[in-house]
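INTERNAL AUDIT FORM
Audit reference: QA-55
Scope: verify that the stored structure record matches its stored sequence.
Auditor: D.O.
Record contents follow.
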Amino acid sequence: MSTCKRHEDDQSGFTLVEVLVAMGLLTVVMTASLPAFLSMLRSSVSTKLQTQAKNLSQERLEQMRDLRFHVDRQNGPFLDLLDIYDTNATTSSPSTTVTVGGTALVGQYISSAAASAGEPAGPFYRIGASSIAGAPGFTETIDTQFLAPDGGVVPKSRYEGNYDSQVVGRDSPPSSALGVTVIIAWTDGGRTKSLRTYTRITDGRPQAPVIQTQARAVAVDITSTAADGGTLRLQGGVSSADGAQSSGSSVSGFASGALATRTGTAAATGTSSTFSLPTQNVASVNNSGAQSGGLGCSWYGFGATGVSNGTGDVSSGLPKAPSNVDSTIPPTLMAGYISNNSGGSCGLLSFDNLVGGGVARVLSASDPLGYEMGAAPYVKVADVAGAGTSISGSTYVSSNGLVSSPQKSVSGATATALQQVTLLPGNPESGGRGLVSVRLLSASVDCTSATTSGALGAAVGKYQFELGWWGKGPSDLTFIWHTDLWSYDSSLSPALVLVSGPTWDPDHTSLGNSSKLSQLISSPGLGATPAVMSTGTTTGLRGFSDGIFSLATIGTLTNEPVAGYSSVKVKVGELTCVADDQR
């Protein structure tokens, strides 16, 4: 009984000796494994630092590739790859500092140096960052070198002392490829470590124009074909302007009071101005006096010509024509014109197609149409006394600055032909008025780029136009002169407005010898009206590309090379514009 009681009173557990032995054994085991544990911990930290360095290097290269390789300095404050990472090649230049993503990048051109510590041999441009935002303990060095097409380094003799990305005219790089070395350094366990990454970045992406502006104006355009097959063309009031911006800004323009061209011969040009900036400055031709193609004004004649504001400008980094386009509201225009009281017997404009051996139709009853056609010239704009201009075409293009709100580009064209442009002025029945005439009292087209992404640009066309013709219509009691006056303003209504006058009906308009007007004027036909403008879609050409109104005679020669070739075609008011701005 007593034995059993003692057993029930015992307490289970470890004795002090057992605990001490266990602790001793654990200490021995931990002491033996501690170096391996610490080594593993250090390896984990080193791997993490190495991975972070790789990420920093990759981030830098991605940032560099996201920048446009080069944008001309003349364009204004556009930041490109070279502005930051290869700023200049001037040994005497002080260091430059640019902050990118919170990291201050300090740059300096190195003319010559031996390859060392992962850096290439000179010449190269060195960027240093003593600290990297968001990555304490890391430093960064970025070296860039211009590369030739064969992959070698471009010799410094080709650009040292001249290249500077911050100076207009000196910012063009010596090549379109960079060798890029990125070195990330850090301290690990008291030792300095580094990671070197090398790649090439080229200017291989196509650079679509950021800005496209264009305007065209021809007040009067007359064409035909001579008996020898040569094309004849006479234009009055001519102006054109084109602006663009991609890697650089450019603007070109041409303005002339009159221009006569014939296949195989030199063009006859009135006073004119031509430019293509920044490469070609304004070149002017001062042929201000009246001109003709020969005796009796054959085959062309035009009065004294002039040009106003025949200049352009890209110095602000934006394409503008004329150079003072923004000095007034509405914009100042670049114009080519024919002056009044200057053409003499040839008038302000005169045209026929008898040159090259052409034989005119017979002016007698044996050829009723020849009789109604009358003698050459076949198109004429009579001279007018007094100062001023009757025939003029003008254009403008412009874009506002980056700080403007909203950013936009604009362009436009205008034209006038205030004196009647008369077809077949030798008609013997109309009392010197000719058979048909047109006047462009005013005409304009203006384009504005979209100011928000995805929106449509705007275009507005306006004109006042007069059409006149001789004959006896269905409701006329006798032969009279008819006059239509048309008005159009696309900003108010897409429809034309016939302000006054009857319907154009050449098929039923009789002439004195029982012929019809349509037998001499082949187009347009019954019910023809002036054009309404083409507005395009989101961008593109807007306006009156085929003229506000067009007329064509029948063949005027008896020896035309092909039937109908000697038809004389007249257009007035060829006006178009383009304004596209992707900034």
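Auditor finding: record pair retrieved intact. The two ends are 106 Å apart (CA to CA).
Action required: none
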